[in-house]
């Protein structure tokens, strides 16, 4: 029988390396980490880029996983499994934060809410399960956009819809915001979809570190943000802890 194909093994190693890191990697970093000559690593990266499994940042020249690979990675995951693995952690997050918690996955260019835990108080609330949110105006959607789990193509439409005066409708501003989401590991929406409301979200990862969904909490802006209008750090910490716990249950390595 024929042995393994070395070039495919090397390509797989590069993809695992990019999936396991919290940031983009340069050619030299990829080559050094895997013990490859730069020319060899560059050839493989160019091929992976050609099939959209890898993307290269135009400004820095560094590489990250491409949208095509991320979409392939999410196809194995049943939404019901994602929901079932998340229920206990979502309930705990709502109890600890005092805010409503929602779980979202991409669906036809929007965010589908697959689980919703009410804010633990006596206020009137409406169940959001099954509702759709815009990608660019919600913290859940920003997470899915930032990590390539969902895509929005403003050029194909007259423009992104402005829900409030704070909604990010300029493609360049949105792109900068998504870059920041990737860097810090969480997203915020502050009166971008509804005045007086704010939300935070963090990515949920599956096998290989691929982002398969997002978990978020939402509430009145004065509860989610401090007096300076910045998201409250304790809420961010609680949210990220819940996201990591769900990711571990889904088979993601430590991240």
From TrEMBL:
DNA-binding is among the record's keywords: yes
Sequence ranges assigned to domain IclR-ED in this UniProt record: 68-252
Keywords: DNA-binding, Transcription, Transcription regulation
Source organism of this protein record: Streptomyces bangladeshensis
PANTHER family cross-referenced by the UniProt entry: HELIX-TURN-HELIX TRANSCRIPTIONAL REGULATOR, ICLR FAMILY, HTH-TYPE TRANSCRIPTIONAL REPRESSOR ALLR
Coiled coil: none
UniProt keyword Transcription regulation present: yes
Xref: InterPro entries: GAF-like_dom_sf (IPR029016), HTH_MetabolicPath_Reg (IPR050707), Tscrpt_reg_IclR_C (IPR014757), Tscrpt_reg_IclR_N (IPR005471), WH-like_DNA-bd_sf (IPR036388), WH_DNA-bd_sf (IPR036390)
Domain HTH iclR-type: 5-67
Gene3D superfamilies: 3.30.450.40, Winged helix-like DNA-binding domain superfamily/Winged helix DNA-binding domain (1.10.10.10)
Cited Pfam families: HTH_IclR (PF09339), IclR_C (PF01614)
Domain of life: Bacteria
Protein name: IclR family transcriptional regulator
SUPFAM superfamilies the record matches: GAF domain-like, Winged helix' DNA-binding domain
